């Protein structure tokens, strides 16, 4: 007899996606995901589905999703499918496994009532107890009692309404078993970069506390978690078997496969030996990720990367001071700056800083006008892409011309063992939040956000920046072909440039052989002279400074008193923001979302004596002398775009997405924050006579450790992190090999200058037909800035944020790099951070405006006033630096 594992590989499974951000995680529960097709619940009419789709499959999984099964727009063709199981002819009957919304839908169609949960659970784990200990033909057969399962629901099937044909097979008690388990589990600290991330964290399942005696649990505190139909092949679970923290999800899907085979045998249906026809596979929404509109030109090798190392180890020079001097040496008020700055030296993710001041060209984009502007030198051109093309297509096409670039290290008076630089020339810039219009499947621009300006388009009478959507483009990149790479660990500067080695579609990119030698050597002399001058100056300052008599360290910047008056004004009022938070909570109660990342913007008009242009060189000092010193971060950045008179300065701690040369994708969401303990706490210990000695230091360290443990054990913070981890796993499964999606670090504690964060790491292997641009597109916008499910959450947030565009904030910032000839794929790589803790400077008609975005994840447990205070607190990562700059200018 053929084994179940072999049979489960040939079972044809259809998953109906109810636009949930976790549906694609179900693929990871199958031994052979290539024999699984996912369609949307509105992709076909019912007649089309019956005639052209249903006959090709052996079983169906109905996914989770936002909303209610009673609403046709939320449940789509799942409703007639389930009605056909109840009342339809035998040829339409098929084994169905309903998950969460799918489970509720089965109950609803068969007469059950959907009500509000007594306890809303999103991203928390509960102990699930089976009611049938022996094998009973259920998806939960042979599972231990109890097992952990993750719950994402605010609605439930009311137990008293359950029809007799649906037999309860599991429930959970509404207790705090997860909190009890976490009390005795020590926190896990992040240990830096991964050697190989394609495995799951063995600590992702915490131990079970003792199970309460069934007889002592009030039946009113029990929630139904699973049922099966007494005669039809229908099963449902309220929890999410596909979550990374649910135990035995693979076994549940294996049980579903076995039950399918049993039903097929009884119904006289034979298992087809052949796989799903390619014509049916193409129906899957996974095909959305294919590069159908991209002009892939293969490997060109029209350029070579030349690298000249400069040893500055003998100079005790701050990289910020050095880069400030390099920028100042160009004497140009309109200089375009590209600075990706690893400002946090102790971070394992801070290795290289990259600075460029003379890009080959600049490209920007407006989503509402489909308008691409390209600037090279003093010449600018505008063009309008077609309706079925996206800006992602355009930049993917550009980067396809820079695959497999070889590198050559020039040993000019010394030897240097250099590993491949992470950035090898390419596009550096940002994708603003509104780029979701071209990345988020199913999203449509609301009427309130449409632009009816007549000054744009192929037939417009003139071309000018006449509206807000052109003032700050939705996306903008410099193509960098000459740059400085600063190794913050080894204290080397690498002077790098792309050298032309043949005819290219981009003649403006790269230098000639002779020009490259001149440029590199001239800049070597510049770097050495600046470093020597700065080193001497700093040495003289140190020698003339008095030796401190008190050994106590100075108070960290985090503990400086806040300036007397905040100079920033929010876009919304306190009362309006509180009202929006309450509406978020109501939407979550109604099952429309699990969490919503509500945001607003804070703005300040700089006085004309400080700056009249957002690209004023003086604004660079806001970053170098204030922000990067007060709030260093591994993904800090300073960019300026003179073409549209805008600049930004950020200190983001959060990696959005990285694609390396081997095609490994890594994402690192941050959710959960607590302030560090950095000052004396001896007042809390009366038994200690504090004199700033070792005991004082020890108590401070112990309190800092206590805060780390409390953060790690906080179920609300953990739930927020887990929700985004599961969302990211879903995003990666769209364009990566589903079975490689893994979570090597789940909810680890990562330490920064002033705070501890809860950080997770999610990895996967990129599919061969996907490039780094598509990887970013299919993950955008960052889930940590939207909530989940992503599409429905974004749509809700549009309304609750009053359709005010977020702009660059909440998007991502980083690079698409030319591919390395020595890497496994040779394709362009990428690394982007989430745009948070960032100041945006834009030039208005009468002034320069500084804006800062801030927000927070709203859950059902959120306290509105606390959430507002958290928003104000988050502005303090950037606002004090701006205020210091204004005060000292």
UniProtKB/TrEMBL annotation:
| Ranges where the Chorismate-utilising enzyme C-terminal domain occurs | 575-874
Q: Which InterPro entries match?
A: ADC_synthase, Anth_synth_I-like, Anth_synth_I_N, Chorismate_C, Class_I_gatase-like, GATASE, TrpG/PapA_dom
UniProt name for this protein: aminodeoxychorismate synthase
Give a GO molecular function annotation for the protein.
Answer: 4-amino-4-deoxychorismate synthase activity
EC numbers listed for it are: 2.6.1.85
Q: Which GO terms describe its cellular component?
A: cytoplasm
Q: Which reaction does it catalyse?
A: chorismate + L-glutamine = 4-amino-4-deoxychorismate + L-glutamate
The answer to whether keyword Acyltransferase applies is no
Recall the taxonomic lineage recorded for the source organism. Answer: Eukaryota, Fungi, Fungi incertae sedis, Mucoromycota, Mucoromycotina
Pathway(s) of this molecule: Cofactor biosynthesis; tetrahydrofolate biosynthesis; 4-aminobenzoate from chorismate: step 1/2
Q: Which residues form the Glutamine amidotransferase domain?
A: 14-183, 219-256
């Amino acid at each position: 007899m053929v084994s179940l594992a072999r049979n489960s590989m040939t079972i044809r499974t259809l998953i109906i996606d109810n636009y949930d951000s976790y549906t694609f995680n179900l693929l990871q529960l199958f031994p052979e995901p290539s024999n699984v097709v996912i369609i949307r619940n509105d992709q076909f009419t019912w007649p089309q589905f019956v005639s052209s789709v249903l006959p090709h499959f052996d079983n169906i999984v109905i996914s989770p999703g936002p909303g209610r099964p009673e609403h046709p727009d939320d449940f789509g063709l799942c409703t007639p499918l389930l009605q056909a199981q109840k009342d339809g002819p035998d040829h339409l009957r098929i084994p169905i496994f309903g998950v969460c919304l799918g489970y509720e839908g089965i109950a609803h169609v068969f007469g059950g009532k959907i009500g509000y949960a007594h306890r809303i659970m999103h991203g928390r784990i509960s102990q699930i107890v089976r009611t049938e200990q022996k094998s009973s033909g259920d998806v939960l057969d042979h599972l231990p009692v109890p097992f952990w399962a993750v719950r994402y629901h605010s609605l439930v099937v009311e137990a008293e309404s359950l029809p007799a044909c649906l037999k309860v097979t599991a429930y959970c008690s509404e207790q705090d078993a997860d909190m009890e388990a976490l009390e005795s589990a020590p926190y896990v600290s992040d240990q830096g970069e991964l050697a190989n991330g394609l495995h799951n964290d063995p600590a992702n399942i915490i131990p079970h506390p003792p199970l309460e005696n069934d007889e002592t649990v009030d039946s009113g505190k029990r929630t139904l978690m699973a049922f099966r139909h007494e005669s039809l092949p229908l099963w449902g679970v309220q929890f999410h078997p596909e979550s990374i923290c649910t135990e035995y999800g693979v076994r549940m899907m294996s049980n579903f496969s076995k039950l399918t085979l049993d039903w097929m045998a009884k119904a006289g249906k034979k298992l087809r030996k052949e796989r799903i026809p390619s014509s049916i596979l193409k129906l899957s929404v996974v095909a959305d990720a294919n590069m159908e509109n991209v002009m892939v030109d293969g490997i060109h090798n029209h350029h070579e990367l030349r690298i000249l190392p400069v040893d500055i180890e003998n100079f005790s020079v701050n990289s910020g001071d050095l880069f400030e001097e390099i920028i100042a040496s160009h004497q140009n008020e309109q200089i375009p700056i590209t600075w990706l700055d690893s400002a946090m030296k102790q971070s394992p993710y801070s290795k290289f800083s990259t600075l460029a001041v003379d890009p080959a060209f600049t490209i920007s984009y407006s989503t509402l006008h489909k308008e691409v502007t390209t600037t090279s030198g003093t010449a600018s051109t505008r063009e309008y892409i077609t309706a079925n093309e996206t800006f992602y297509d355009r930049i993917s096409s550009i980067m396809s011309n820079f695959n497999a670039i070889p590198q050559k290290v020039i040993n000019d008076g010394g030897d240097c063992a250099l590993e491949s630089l992470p950035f090898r020339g390419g596009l550096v810039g940002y994708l603003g939040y509104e780029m979701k219009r071209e990345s988020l499947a199913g999203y449509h621009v609301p009427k309130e956000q449409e632009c009816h300006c007549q000054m744009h388009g192929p037939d417009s009478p003139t071309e000018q920046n006449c509206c807000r959507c052109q003032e700050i483009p939705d996306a903008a990149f410099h193509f960098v072909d000459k740059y400085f790479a600063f190794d913050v660990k080894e204290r080397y500067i690498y002077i790098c440039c792309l050298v032309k080695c043949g005819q290219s579609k981009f003649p403006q990119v790269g230098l000639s052989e002779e020009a490259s030698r001149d440029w590199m050597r001239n800049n070597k002399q510049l770097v050495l002279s600046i470093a020597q001058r700065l080193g001497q100056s700093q040495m003289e300052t140190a020698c003339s400074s008095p030796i401190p008599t008190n050994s106590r360290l100075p108070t960290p910047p985090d503990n400086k008193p806040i300036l007397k008056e905040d100079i920033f004004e929010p876009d919304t009022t306190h009362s309006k923001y509180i009202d929006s938070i309450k509406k978020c909570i109501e939407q979550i109660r109604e099952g429309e979302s699990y969490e919503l990342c509500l945001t607003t913007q804070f703005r300040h008009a700089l006085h004309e004596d400080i700056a009249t242009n957002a690209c004023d060189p003086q604004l660079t000092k806001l970053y170098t002398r204030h922000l990067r010193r007060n709030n260093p971060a591994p993904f800090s950045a300073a960019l300026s775009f003179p073409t549209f008179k805008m600049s930004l300065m950020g200190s983001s701690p959060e990696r959005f997405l990285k694609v390396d040369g081997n095609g490994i994708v890594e994402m690192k969401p941050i959710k959960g924050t607590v302030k560090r303990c950095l000052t004396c706490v001896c007042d809390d210990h009366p038994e200690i006579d504090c004199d700033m000695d070792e005991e004082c230091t020890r108590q401070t360290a112990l309190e800092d450790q206590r805060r780390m443990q409390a953060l790690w054990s906080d179920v609300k913070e953990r739930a927020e992190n887990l929700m985004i981890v599961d969302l990211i796993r879903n995003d990666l499964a769209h364009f990566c090999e589903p079975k490689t999606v893994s979570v090597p670090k789940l909810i680890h504690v990562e330490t920064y200058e002033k705070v501890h964060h809860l950080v997770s790491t999610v990895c996967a292997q990129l599919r061969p037909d996907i490039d780094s641009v598509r990887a970013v597109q299919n993950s955008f916008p960052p889930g940590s800035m939207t909530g989940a499910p992503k599409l429905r959450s974004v749509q809700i947030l549009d309304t609750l944020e009053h359709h005010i565009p977020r702009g660059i904030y909440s998007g991502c910032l980083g690079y698409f790099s030319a591919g390395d000839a020595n890497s496994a794929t040779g394709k362009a790589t990428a690394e982007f951070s989430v745009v948070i803790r960032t100041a945006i400077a834009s030039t208005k008609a009468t002034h320069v405006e500084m804006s800062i975005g801030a927000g927070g994840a709203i859950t059902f447990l959120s306290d509105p006033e606390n959430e507002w205070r958290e928003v104000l607190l988050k502005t303090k990562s950037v606002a004090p630096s701006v205020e210091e700059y204004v005060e000292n200018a």
